[in-house]
Structure formats: C-alpha cells, structure tokens
Amino acid sequence: MPSKRYKKALELVVTSKLYQLKSAVEILARFPKAKFNETIELAFRLGVDPKQSDQMVRGTVPLPHGSGKTVRVLVFAKPGNAADSAKTAGAEYVGYDDLIKKCTEGWSDFDVAISTPEAMIEVRKLGKVLGPRGLMPNPKTGTVTEDTAKAVREVKAGRVEFKIDKAGNIHVPVGKANFSDLHIVENVRSVIEAVAKSRPSTVKGAFIISCTLSSTMSPPVRLDVREFLAA
Known about the structure:
By secondary structure, the protein is an alpha/beta fold. It folds into 2 domains: about 140 residues, CATH 3.30.190.20; about 80 residues, Rossmann fold (3-Layer(aba) Sandwich), CATH 3.40.50. It is built from 9 helices and 9 strands.
C-alpha cells in the first residue's frame, strides 16, 4: 500500500504528462519530504537490445554540482608513484596484493574501484566478485588508468557512471533533496545530454523511450526530452 506521503505527492503530478525539466524539478521540490535527505534519481527506458554487444550503452559524466554522496574509493596499484598519487588525492584504500585478497574473501566496503593497467593483470581475476556489484574497474569508464590521482579526484567530485541493465534501463543519481532547483536542473541536463550522445549507431527508431525524475520515496515525474534529442 502506498504511504500517505506518496499519495499526497501523487496529487501534485499528472502521471501521463510530459514535463519540461524546470517544471519537473519544481514539482519534485513540492513533494512531501521524507525524514532523511533523499537521493534524486533519473531513470531511462532505452530502445536498445542489451543482448547485442553493439547496443551496449555505458559511460561516465561529471555532475556540475556533485552527487551529494560521499564516495569511498579503492585503488589497486603496486607501491610507487601511482599508489602515492592516489593516497594524496584522497583515496580511502590503496594497495595491491592485500586488497585483492580482501576482495577475494568478499569484502566490498567501497563505492568505486580504480586500477592501474599493470595491476589489472591480477585484478581481472576479481571479475566474478566485483562484476555483479558494479565495482569492476573498466577502461571505458576511466577507472583503469595510470593517472590515478585524476581518476580519484573526478570520482570524488561527482563523476557518475551510467550503464544499461538487462532490461534496457538506466538509473543515475543526480543529487540530493537538499540541492537547489537550479543545481538539480543542471545536473540532470548533463546526464540526459551524455546519455543521448551515447546512442549506438546500430539502434533503429526511438533511443530514449522514456525518462523520469524521482526522489527515493516519491512517484516519478515524466520528462519531455525532445529538446535534448533535437540538440
């Protein structure tokens, strides 16, 4: 059964209507608040076939105003410049054999994993452990790199990753409920533009079928994304 808060929120939105981004964010701000700082999230339904390797949609995008989330970063690197740079940049965990062993044993108390190309020779073996949790370093998302300091700084500053799931959907956090409307609008705009640009060349017909904006405990507000597709 929907909560009273959810029902009150539903009264403020026309579920069949497509809203301009600014209007959608204003409606979201009027929804009854939860007792915690909710996460604001974008959800896409894409016209792709996730089973086809040439229709995979994946990438990263820096949020102009960050995600509002404290990101715990792990860096796989052998002792040396890359490891030292990662520590200086603020990575919570930096190591090689010790961290690989901990992860093999099931530990995953971090949000993003970064690796040097050299370390990937062994880190690659963690695919079955880190892969299902979305924590595996990947060159396509900038998390396999020699420049560990830059990667750590970007992740901590609010770079988010997007990737389609098995049903062809994407969910991306774009801020917190205590963000200003303007900051949410600008973060959302950045993500929609990045997803629109990631359209595979093999996709026929509509790419972004639907896009909604919601907070952790709210109903979704449907967005009109035609302006982004035209651009």
